[in-house]
Amino acid sequence: MEIIHAVHVFVKSLLFLLLWSNCEGRESEHNHVTCGSLVKLLNTRHNVRLHSHDVKYGSGSGQQSVTGVENADDANSYWQIRGKPNRPCQRGAAIKCGQAIRITHMKTGRNLHTHHFSSPLSNNQEVSAFGENGEGDDLDVWTVQCEGIHWERDEDVRFKHVGTDVFLSITGEQYGHPIRSQREVHGMSTPNQHNWWRSMEGVFLQPSQVPLRHDEL
Amino acid sequence: MATKGMTLCNVCCLLLYVIAAVLAGRDFYQILGVSKSASIRDIKKAYRKLALQLHPDRNPDDPKAQDKFADLGAAYEVLSDEEKRKQYDTYGEDGLKEGHHGSHNDIFSSFFGDFGFMFGGNRQQQDRNIPRGNDITLDLEVTLEEVYSGNFVEVVRVKPVAKEAPGKRKCNCRQEMRTTQLGPGRFQMTQEMVCDECPNVKLVNEERTLEVEIEQGVRDEMEYPFIGEGEPHIDGEPGDLRFRIKVLKHPLFERRGDDLYTNVTISLVEALIGFEMDITHLDGHKVHIVRDKITKPGARMWKKGEGLPNFDNINIRGSLIITFDVEFPQTQLDEQQKEGIQSLLKQSSVQKIYNGLQGY
């Protein structure tokens, strides 16, 4: 009886160990969006990617316009995920849900930005690209809203603006010439089906080891 | 008889040893030029350096170039994987279970990018008529510690890849002028969109891992290109992915070329009577400073060889320049202390008036 009991305990602990070891290693950074990464953001309701270019709004603030495009192969749809002004995030660290970030347009170095101006087509809040070389002002900061701990790559998230509390959204209005068929991107105050975004193509930095330190003997 | 037996024994042993050495397989550590205790970073660094040297395109006259290059790939594949390295260390090359997985091309392109390697040649000089996808440039922030010791950044690239799809599609679309005849002697020229017919493709997102090296001594704005890892073009070649180095400011050290500058504040007492201290360098080693003379405010100390490694030759290092400033006592002195200092220092009153600005 004693032997049977011992074997029973042994098998139980072995199974537990196997189960536990299988759960480890799942938290690899390979599926997270990390600080310093370049991403394309897809609006899942309207199937267009967040985009900007050297074209200014003809109304509102007159700043650089931000739109949604159907193409999947335009480098002008790449945005870099960076930390808040004066608080850089560590390269390769996974972005946490609720973390405040800046979203910088790769080609023009301007930050995703919104302010109290009306958007040209739908009269929601205008979203522009603002700043120079990655530096703008406090209205460049957004928080990532998602479930769980970290922003996962194949997860739908929302972007809420710190400062005006609107959500980055698209409701389908289309521009004419010279940016024909591109969609208007604006800020809306309510979370709904129009403000879900997912990271698609990109260059995702993984966390590095700290360079070796050795003390002289 | 004994000696004959001995010689036979020796010959047998030698033969056995030679056979064993041949059968035991390749020495991967020797191929990479690293020690048995090399870190994964050392291995990656060694591979990257040798891959550039040994690539067959770079050695067209060497008949063994292909083999040497293949050996290099095999060595990296085993030593860069923890499991395989352990097996290799214990059992040798024969002890490795399965055959090689990825081709050497996969390994090579994770360090340099895809699409046929160009040695020194300009990609633009190829066929100018082949349309090319956009280039992507990522600003990669690096710390001064990484500039000093080097590092590798692993990157996951998710990009659309063209896959076969059923049916046909329009490709190579272009505007052409067409002349149509409206009547006798009357023609009209119109612009028309003309396309070819190509096999249909769809773009599917695929992932691959790239290794970016932060080389020792790397300078701000230097770029590391990965050929073909940029945006795809459905009718042509993909563009390139470039990592542009941005060296971050450091709280303790300022970089000027290969030299490092730092400041130390010492007390008035230390400035007068001397002191001893350690400065912890970027890789943790300590720079020892001893001073037994008077140190004036603004005095500089040069420590040769304690700067950054030079990018072109990492055996050459710059200097560490330390500038001292003096912190005077915070509390005012009482009469007794004033008299004491007067008598101790025996410095007569100076009170020399002069123009210190001289137009600046």
Question: What would you say this structure looks like, in words?
Answer:
Chain A: One of its GO terms (cellular component) is endoplasmic reticulum. Chain A: Residues 30-84, 92-147 form the MIR domain. Chain A: It holds the Pfam family MIR. Chain A: InterPro entries: MIR_dom_sf, MIR_motif. The complex is a heterodimer of chains A (217) and B (360). Chain A has one helix and twelve strands; from the N terminus they run H-E-E-E-E-E-E-E-E-E-E-E-E. Chain A is mainly β. Chain A has one domain: Trefoil (Trefoil (Acidic Fibroblast Growth Factor, subunit A)). In chain A, strand 6 (111-118) and strand 7 (125-130) form a beta hairpin. With 360 residues, chain B is an alpha+beta fold. Chain B is built from nine helices and eleven strands. Chain B has helices at 2-23, 28-32, 40-54, 65-79, 82-91, 104-112, 144-149, 268-273, 335-345, and strands spanning 136-142, 151-183, 186-214, 223-226, 241-247, 254-256, 259-267, 275-280, 286-291, 300-303, 320-327. In chain B, a hairpin with a 2-residue loop joins strand 2 and strand 3 (186-214). The longest helix of chain B has 22 residues, at 2-23. Chain B is flat and about 115 Å long. The interface between A and B is large, with 32 and 40 residues. Strand 12 of chain A pairs antiparallel with strand 2 of chain B, so a sheet runs across the interface.
How does the SSE layout of this entry go?
The complex is a heterodimer of chains A (217) and B (360).
Chain A: H1 2-23, E1 38-43, E2 48-56, E3 64-69, E4 79-82, E5 100-105, E6 111-118, E7 125-130, E8 141-145, E9 158-161, E10 167-174, E11 183-188, E12 197-205
Chain B: H1 2-23, H2 28-32, H3 40-54, H4 65-79, H5 82-91, H6 104-112, E1 136-142, H7 144-149, E2 151-183, E3 186-214, E4 223-226, E5 241-247, E6 254-256, E7 259-267, H8 268-273, E8 275-280, E9 286-291, E10 300-303, E11 320-327, H9 335-345
Parallel strand pairs in B: 1-5, 7-11
Antiparallel strand pairs in B: 2-3, 4-5, 6-7, 8-9, 10-11
